[in-house]
Structures are given as structure tokens and as C-alpha cells.
Write a structure and sequence with these properties.
heterodimer, A: 214 residues, mainly alpha, two-stranded antiparallel ribbon, 2% strand, B: 191 residues, alpha+beta, five-stranded antiparallel beta sheet
């Protein structure tokens, strides 16, 4: 296994959302503005990397019978730390993500990577896995946000760009909001966008496979 | 299957140690963030108080009466109450929204009519429930929180009848409406 391969796995071949279909709840729920997507992606990246490191270090000490319980305690610990730190230092993000920060505890990407990767691999590999999987997740969130924001409300970069405070910035208007497909900003739009993205990803992967076979 | 004492000790011991270490870490993070989070909450409460009262109003905390708490309980929890120097009361009310509780300040003037609602903290869905919190226009075009100003009569505020929600965020609007009803009933119970 090499680093480049691991990187491509995190981003494309084993993308946590589009291929492993993990962590879809948060993906559907929070991808309504660029700021939310980026914030959530970075929060998950940090928690995933830290929990992968700790779980990889403890993998020989933790008895097999209680490994899930141990993983969850470690993950919940980091999530609570990040939650408190965000509340204290980036209240705007904490407010706009709301309950989805504490819910990272049950985000199956983190438990999934702990179980399938960090508990079987060394420290360096596990840390890299956390970072790459985290980047893969963040990129999908950002694509979803950009897509939904642009087609739904004719904006780009909501919460970050266009003046105003962090989280309150309206985003840069590209076309007037009333011409947007408002349905895309609603939960149902999340499902539609994710479905289209997964289909595109599978199409791309199948095409690449066919090419390889030839 | 016989379970040996050593095995139990190992399993329980590891889990306990991990939990203790994580708890210690959380203690440290809490120490660092506790005061900051408190300060942010106090500031938010002050901002929310200022938002519901006429300009220049001063607030004096009032002791909660049992009757007021009991009356509000039908809609939400009455957390604290302030007397406004311009007449009437501002109350901190906790009511349930779509994802958890919504903590809000509701102002009621001397004539028992609402002077405004402002949200202190909540866990509503970003981009959907937060539209209500941010006072975006409702389906009729009025800012959703501003429509409450001037309304009176505990229990007469009903989403879909007297209150117009933001489409997609009806449950959050209902939470705010419950908070307003709670405030009105508390003031009515106090006479």
C-alpha cells in the first residue's frame, strides 16, 4: 500500500460518501451553504484523523470483545472537544451546524474507518487514512453545497463570501434568487443532488474499469 | 462457557481506563472553553433582551411565581423573567423545535401584547429551521418573527391560522409560537 494509492482511495475509489455510502445523513442535512459544508467537512476531518491515530495506537491493548465500545468512547470524546471549542471560538459555525456537530459521534465514516482501517493498521497509515478520507468527505460536501446553492438560490459561497459576518454573509449572487429551483435547498433537493452525484461517480468508475480491462 | 476473572478484569479495566482518560481530556477542554461559552451566552441573552424591548429599556430580574410557571408549562418552560422599565415583562422561554429545544426571549408589554421574540440558542437545521431564527420572510412576505409583535391572548396563536410559517420550517415556527403562547399565559396568570 502506498500513500498515493491511499490518497486516490480516499478521494475517488473508496470515497466515503459516494462509494462507501457512509455518513449520508449529515451530507444530506447540512449541505445548504458553502460555509456549513466546509465547516462540517473540516470538523469531521479533524475528528476522524485524531480518532484514527488514537485507535491505531490502542489497537493492541483494546480487547476484541469491547472494541466498539472503546472506539465510541474515544470518538465521543473528540467530538465533544470539537463541539466545545467551536462553541467558544467559532460560535457562528456552531450555531449554523447546530445539532449536527454532536451527531458526528454517530457518523458512520468515523466508526467505519476505526473498525475497518485504524484497528488493523499502523499509526502513520491510519493518520493518513483519516486525512484522506476526511478530504474525500469534505470535497463531496463542498460539491453538494455549491451545486445546491447555485441552482437553488443562484448564489456562491453563502456564509463566507459577499460581506457580512462569518455565517451571516449572503454569498455572491450569480442570478436572482427567484429564478432558482428552491426545491434544491430543501431536504428533498439534498436527496436528488446526492443521487445524481453517486450516479455520476459510479458511471465514472465503471468507465475507468472498462478502459482498464481493454 | 466459563468466563475467567482475569478476562473480566481486562475488558472492564481497559474500558474504564479509556473512559477516565477521555473524561480527563474533556475536563481540560471544558476548563478552557467554559468561561468563553458562558460569556457568549450572556451576551446573546442581552442582545435578545434588547431586541424585544423598546429602545432604552432597562431590565430587572423578577422572581418567578408558581402560577406563572404553571401557566407557561402548557406550551414551554419559563426559565427566567425580567421587568422592563418601559412596562411589561421579558421572559426567557424554552420550547421544543424540530431538532431540540429553542431558547428564546419573548417580550410582553403592559397591555399583555407581544413586543417581540428573539432566539438565544437553538439546534434547528441549518438553512431550513434557521430561516425562522434569522427572521426571514414567511410565506406571506412578513419577517416571520416580526408577525408576532402586537399579538395577544394566550393560546390564540396557532400556526396556519393566526401565524404564518416559513414553508419547510413549520415545526420551528410552531416552536416559536409555543414560546409566545407560554409568555402570554405566564403574564396573564400573574394578573
Amino acid at each position: 500500500m502506498n500513500t498515493k494509492r491511499q490518497f486516490m482511495d480516499g478521494l475517488i475509489h473508496q470515497n466515503p460518501v459516494l462509494v462507501q455510502l457512509l455518513g449520508m445523513c449529515s451530507t444530506l442535512a447540512i449541505t445548504t451553504s458553502f460555509f456549513n459544508g466546509l465547516g462540517m467537512g473540516v470538523a469531521v476531518l479533524i475528528i476522524l484523523t485524531l480518532s484514527n491515530i488514537i485507535i491505531s495506537l490502542l489497537r493492541k491493548i483494546i480487547p476484541d470483545e469491547v472494541r466498539i465500545a472503546c472506539f465510541i468512547v474515544v470518538i465521543a470524546g473528540f467530538v465533544t472537544c470539537v463541539d466545545l471549542l467551536l462553541k467558544a471560538f467559532v460560535p457562528a459555525l456552531s450555531e449554523s451546524l447546530g445539532v449536527f456537530i454532536p451527531l458526528i459521534v454517530v457518523n458512520c465514516i468515523i466508526l467505519g474507518r476505526a473498525e475497518s482501517f485504524a484497528s488493523k493498521n499502523g499509526l502513520g497509515r491510519s493518520a493518513l487514512d483519516g486525512i484522506f478520507q476526511g478530504i474525500g468527505y469534505t470535497i463531496v460536501l463542498i460539491i453538494m453545497c455549491v451545486f445546491r446553492e447555485f441552482l437553488g438560490a443562484g448564489k456562491f459561497g453563502g456564509g463566507l463570501l459577499g460581506g457580512g459576518g462569518l455565517g451571516a454573509a449572503p454569498g455572491i449572487a450569480i442570478f436572482p434568487e427567484e429564478y432558482g429551483l428552491a426545491v434544491l435547498t430543501l431536504p428533498v433537493g439534498g436527496f436528488l443532488t446526492l443521487g445524481v452525484l453517486i450516479a455520476a461517480m459510479q458511471w465514472g468508475l465503471a468507465k475507468a474499469k472498462k478502459k482498464e480491462a481493454k | 462457557m466459563k468466563i475467567s476473572g482475569k478476562f473480566v478484569l481486562k475488558v472492564a479495566g481497559t474500558l474504564t481506563i479509556i473512559a477516565l482518560v477521555v473524561a480527563a481530556l474533556l475536563g481540560v477542554v471544558d476548563m478552557v472553553t467554559h468561561d468563553k461559552i458562558d460569556a457568549i451566552n450572556v451576551e446573546k441573552t442581552n442582545q435578545a433582551l434588547a431586541a424585544v424591548a423598546p429602545e432604552g429599556a432597562e431590565f430587572t430580574p423578577v422572581e418567578l411565581s408558581d402560577a406563572a410557571v404553571a401557566a407557561a408549562a402548557a406550551y414551554g418552560t419559563l426559565d427566567s423573567m425580567y421587568e422592563m422599565s418601559t412596562g411589561g415583562y421579558a421572559m426567557k422561554i424554552v420550547a421544543s423545535g424540530s431538532q431540540g429545544s429553542i431558547e428564546m426571549i419573548v417580550g410582553v408589554d403592559a397591555n399583555k401584547a407581544l413586543t417581540g421574540v428573539s432566539v438565544v440558542s437553538h439546534s434547528e437545521t441549518g438553512g431550513i429551521g434557521t430561516k425562522v431564527i434569522n427572521n426571514d420572510p414567511n410565506s406571506a412576505g412578513t419577517p416571520v418573527l416580526d408577525q408576532f409583535i402586537g399579538m395577544s391572548g394566550a393560546g390564540s396563536l396557532v400556526v396556519g391560522k393566526t401565524v404564518t410559517p416559513i414553508s419547510g420550517a413549520t415545526v420551528t415556527t410552531k416552536g416559536i409560537t409555543a414560546g409566545c403562547n407560554a409568555a402570554l399565559s405566564a403574564v396573564e396568570a400573574m394578573g
